[in-house]
Specification:
The structure is a homodimer of 334-residue chains.
Chain A: H1 4-8, E1 11-16, E2 20-26, H2 29-34, E3 42-44, H3 47-56, E4 61-65, H4 67-77, E5 82-85, H5 92-103, E6 107-108, E7 120-126, E8 132-137, H6 151-156, E9 157-163, H7 170-185, E10 189-193, H8 197-202, H9 204-214, E11 217-221, H10 222-229, H11 234-244, E12 247-251, E13 257-261, E14 264-268, H12 282-295, H13 300-314, H14 326-333
Parallel strand pairs in A: 1-5, 1-9, 2-7, 3-8, 5-6, 9-10, 10-11, 11-12
Antiparallel strand pairs in A: 2-4, 7-8, 12-13, 13-14
Helix pairs in contact in A: 4-12, 10-11, 12-13, 13-14
């Protein structure tokens, strides 16, 4: 739970991203077919489609989601002080998002929009074979702009962490640049997750420019970093990013992670997992673990191990947020 | 084939190791049981045991073997000029070893011993399930000493490559130190393969001293390098070896390889293999590929890729030496 004293003090991480509520409900294959959905895929839908689909869904479970939101949840589970910036609308799902993320101890005060599209949601239909069919309506979250970047929050946070998915919209891009400028002015650090190889592909040049000029800590998986530099091998991408970024944390699924920071390079193995159930959120939790260690002043290799432990928890169950107290899990594994 | 002109010129690599003839024969499970052998293992045997076992084996295939010998064969297959130093006895298997290694184009002139134990052999019994049960008699190869290190060969070779297995005997250790001293005096490079984690375990301190003071290019797999530094994680070993060695090439099986040389670090993926049949000789061929590229002035990441290609060929079939012309394979893959 947040309290006034904590809100006034220093923050470890400020996360900026899409405010999305995940709405999960059971369904069957016949219903998916009737709704014209391709099982196992993610589709973007508009407001009307979202309302219509939600009306047809059975009793659902709602939980705050979104990439940077998941990272914030991981940070809270690691007892790392964090805040979140992202836009909801003043509607029912907006209330759920706000309540949910605050209740896990994340400081969240972005004012809800009083007009425009409703709160973003990802409507997830789960079939008996455990597959998830996702329909995302980005809604109010797409209107995040520079005015939403609270100068005081950026100044209080050791690291401001930005979700690359937002890069698709000009207003959000302007918000990122404002956050980066404010952080630099206060000697604070800027971190970016590349989020998605297709997103990188759409904005390669501006991403590269932002990475080179503003990012202190870059998170990317293998597909994203090879896309960023348009190279074929991981090692080629590694050589590029080493020259561009103060710290790069590159995740490689079962191959673990590679950390580079100037002369320092670490090759860290993946944590063992009995069985991989759902890889959604692995990158978000790696970032949470890494930043948790980093803001506590741990060595880079240890930060990567904490990231790996957090990721190993989330891929062992359905859902992109931790189901156990990550701080305890990390203490038992390190 | 070697010729006089080539022998007089510069060499790329001089390999120093055990001169072992592999003797392969088919057998059945009942025979293994009768001979009291544990299927799939390697045992050291003495001269009498070796003679008795050989007498009982069915029609066999003989081929020059040994770790550094396999590397020499790989280098020859890569059109890389190389020589080999290792001791045989003036007996039938010694003739086979000498003929065999010369016929593939490796310069080999270590005088055969005229007394002492017979030529080393590894008697390999292959059961119908494709398992190999090995019995190694080190014979004449254990008597390699400083006097066998030909000063002229060391001076002619860009790199002198030493097989760690020899480190078990004081005379061979003295031979290594002499080779390292001669190489250093001529501005030539010294390379060492750690060969085996148990060998590292037996001689950790002297290996470390040799690595720190004499080795320019170190080859080790994950078990060997973590044993050398008595650390648990690969990354910890990586940090140690980076400080100790001019170039370290660390092999990680399906995880590929990691190359470190001062500020330079490369993380190179393994080459794809349809099916792994027999991993014997993977490290030897990686070293061959790497040194082939290195002595041609290729970049470290390219050297590692050539090593990976050579290793991928040898693990796809039974036997520790290439079955295709590696130079052609590399040309088609790079």
């Amino acid at each position: 739970m947040t309290d006034t004293a904590a809100q006034a003090g220093e923050l470890d991480v400020l996360c900026v991203g899409n405010s999305i509520v995940d709405v999960l409900a059971q369904t069957d294959d016949a219903t998916l077919e009737k709704l014209d959905m391709v099982k196992g895929t993610m589709a973007l839908i508009d407001a009307d489609q979202a309302e219509a689909l939600y009306a047809q869904m059975s009793a659902a479970i709602e939980t705050s989601g979104g990439s940077a939101g998941n990272t914030a949840a991981g940070l809270a589970s690691l007892n790392t002080k964090c805040a979140f910036i992202g836009r909801v609308r003043d509607d029912q799902l907006g209330d759920i998002f706000t309540h949910d993320i605050r209740s896990i101890g994340v400081e969240y005060a972005t004012p809800a929009a009083t007009d425009g599209p409703p709160t973003a949601r990802c409507l997830i239909l789960i079939t008996p074979d455990a597959q998830r069919t996702m329909n995302t309506f980005l809604g109010a979250s797409v209107n995040l702009g520079p005015e939403d970047i609270d100068e005081d929050l950026v100044a209080r946070a050791k690291v401001t962490y930005l979700e690359g998915y937002l890069w698709d919209r000009d207003a959000a891009k302007a918000a990122f640049l404002r956050a980066a400028g404010l952080a630099a002015a206060k000697d604070r650090l800027v971190s970016l997750s590349l989020s998605d190889p297709f997103c990188v592909d759409r904005h390669r040049e501006s991403f590269r420019e932002f990475v080179t000029n503003h990012v202190d800590i870059l998170f990317a998986n293998e597909d994203e970093i090879t896309s960023l530099y348009q190279v074929e091998s991981f090692d080629d991408a590694l050589q590029h990013v080493r020259a561009d970024c103060r710290i790069a944390a590159l995740t490689r699924s079962e191959k673990g992670s590679v950390l580079v920071s100037g002369d320092e390079v670490h090759v860290v193995d993946a944590e063992p997992v009995d069985s991989v159930v759902d890889t959604t959120g692995a990158g978000d939790q790696f970032a949470a673990g890494f930043l948790s260690g980093f803001t506590q002043g741990k060595e880079l290799a240890t930060c990567a191990r904490i990231g790996g432990i957090a990721a190993s928890e989330v891929i062992a169950h359905v859902g992109p947020r931790p189901q156990v107290k990550l701080a305890d899990l990390v203490a038992s594994r390190l």
